[in-house]
Amino acid sequence: MSEFLVSLLGERLVNSEKAEVDVQSLGSKLSLVGLYFGCSLNGPCKQFNASLSEFYNKFKKSSENRDKLEIVFISSDQDQKLWQEFLQEMQWPALPFKEKHKKMKLWNRYKVTSVPSLVFLDALTGKIVCRNGLLVVRDDPEGLEFPWGPKPFGEVVAGPLIRSSGQVSDGSALEGSFVGVYFSAHWCPPCRSLSRVLVESYRTVKEAGQKFEIVFVSADRSEESFTQYFSEMPWVAVPYADEGRRSRLNRLYGIQGIPTLILLDTEGKVITRQGRVEVLNDLECRAFPWHPRPVLELNESNAVQLNEGPCLVLFVDAEEEGELEPAKELIQPIAEKIIAKYKAKDEETPLLFFVAGEDDMSDSLRDYTNLPEAAPLLTILDMSARAKYVKDVEEITPAIVEQFVGDFLAEKLKPEPI
Prior knowledge:
A six-stranded mixed β-sheet has the order 14-16-15-17-18-19, sandwiched between helices. The chain is an alpha/beta fold. The model has no long low-confidence stretch (mean pLDDT 93). Helix 11 links the parallel strand 15 and strand 16. It is built from 13 helices and 19 strands.
């Protein structure tokens, strides 16, 4: 049994009979663990729980890989009785109710933003195998595609792609181009707003001579809505009728909400999952193909990322955009070091980095998190855990930032409630 699982989940889980389950006893053949994030009070969770139970029972009874898979429930319930009642409907173990800190760490580590969510991990290494297990349960009810690992983009997108003009091309035509995979729908107002900007960005990049294509993966509720929405787009789309391919692309990138724009390099590897933020922050497309920046200046378009996990935010006394440069230069080497460390392990960075000046967005964030008015002010904000860590000193130096970040990652800091 992997030491990783013990470090991730602890030594003991519990089952529906309130009995302890030794993590070491999950089996020597175990190769895949599904972390099921849910809540008893959530209607979609109740529905998915029934589907997952059917899938799990069938897999354990008939699959030749039955000993290689286990599910672990990670609850966000606040009421122990409701949690226990929900657990009665499950055949798999759960993280103990009292392990609230460990639960929150898991939510942050795997960037879970909604429930239900099912993330499949390699049991030995902890590497994410599949972010969107909900689609696995729906699309592969017999478990024939186990272990549901990621396939190359070129393989998943293979097949006809259409333009609103009626022209048809093949997925192979994308080879050698930067690609934006655009998950969107007409019924979603933020999607329509982004699409208007994205059309201009697309044209700007193409006119500059760059090999760039966007693939629209629709989440529309009818083909009529898809056709109407797609008529406004100059790029290609997966045909609406090809639900299987649309679903496989959603599964490949673990899409949990729209609009989402995934940017790929010319080899089909992910440049950034934050294409929406990058496009909105660079209307003139000067930074194309939008490789992620180690440190962001906090503004209205990227503030949504504050909800995606712990974020270091350095507040400084600066009213103009250019005045933030010294603050960025101070923390950028530390940010680059952290990003490189986790990229080498093929893991996402556990911390995002921001600098914030004196403006309405910073004021709103300070008010919401009840931060002191001091500047400079070094903080780490964990919105999902409703926790903050504050370093209020007269002078912020690289050594202070590095120590602060290191202590946070080593869990040496005591959180204050937001």
